[in-house]
Amino acid sequence: MSKGITSTEGLIRKVFALAHGPDDVVFYRGHSNRDKYKLEPSLYRLAQHVNSEHLLFRELLIANPADFSDDTTTFEKLVRMQHYSMPTRLFDITSNPLMALYFACKSSPDKTGEVIILKIQRDEIKFFDSDTASCIANLARLPKNDKDAIDFTLDQIAFNESLPITRLLHFVREEKPYFLGKISPPDLTRIVCVKGRMTNNRISSQSGAFLLFGLDATLPEAGNADISIDRISIKASEKVKIIRELDGLNINESTVFPYIENSAKYIAKKYES
């Protein structure tokens, strides 16, 4: 773990000093309590949510159809669900280190925070219309018994002809009618970095991207072959000062969460003293 910082300037210095290759893309994630939070999507925090993933997905669509009318893919629906606080297989990351610092400091005032640094090879990054992203995202629509029945020991042809995968292919083809039935079995268990369209104000304001977790995929705290991880700790005693510094750089509740109610709260609080 990298040595801790005590200021916004300290983080910037460390970011500029990062060693990375020309093909590395660097992302960040802020945790307000380094001992509590793990490198896992919100879906994984409760076994009941994992088991009911397909129901969570459908229930929110049924309850709020108009909110998802502009989303053309399952991945885009998951992104919107994530920002409505629905547990999903997405894990938020950002290309802006100061945004990660804000999240590391904004809560848990008595706990050590951390900024997590993730380095990913440029050619490993997917986009919202990626076939791999479509296949992994649509696992969210597959019932648990179908997920459990997926046989990863089959060769690619038999794998794609198996019943649970033909059902998965049906979902993928709803958004990609010409998609060939050639899913590579290892792709469904990967963790991929996906850049989405900036159709959500919050994604745009937070310079957001996502790690999309495949079936039973886990990210070790030390990273894996595709994702290199380092950490910078933030002392609990410095959080208030850093939040003030970030406010001076126009990173605050109003700009991080760009909704009118948050702007109203921020403005009102600013004039309380």
Features:
273 residues; alpha/beta; 8 strands; 39% helix; 17% strand
- Quick check: average pLDDT? 90
Please write the string of helix (H) and strand (E) elements: EHEHHHEHEEHHHHEHEEHHH
Describe the sheet with the most strands: 4 strands, mixed
* Biggest sheet: strand arrangement: 1-8-4-2
Explain the overall architecture.
- It is built from 13 helices and 8 strands.
- The chain has 273 residues and is an alpha/beta fold.
- It has one domain.
- The protein has a 4-stranded mixed beta sheet with strand order 1-8-4-2.
In terms of topology, how is this protein built?
Blueprint: E1 2-5, H1 8-16, E2 24-31, H2 47-51, H3 53-63, H4 74-83, E3 90-94, H5 97-105, E4 113-121, E5 126-127, H6 131-137, H7 144-149, H8 156-161, H9 163-175, E6 191-195, H10 201-205, E7 208-213, E8 227-234, H11 239-248, H12 253-256, H13 260-270
Parallel strand pairs: 1-8, 5-6
Antiparallel strand pairs: 2-4, 3-7, 4-8, 6-7
Give a brief description:
The protein has helices at residues 8-16, 47-51, 53-63, 74-83, 97-105, 131-137, 144-149, 156-161, 163-175, 201-205, 239-248, 253-256, 260-270; strands at residues 2-5, 24-31, 90-94, 113-121, 126-127, 191-195, 208-213, 227-234. With 273 residues, it is an alpha/beta fold.
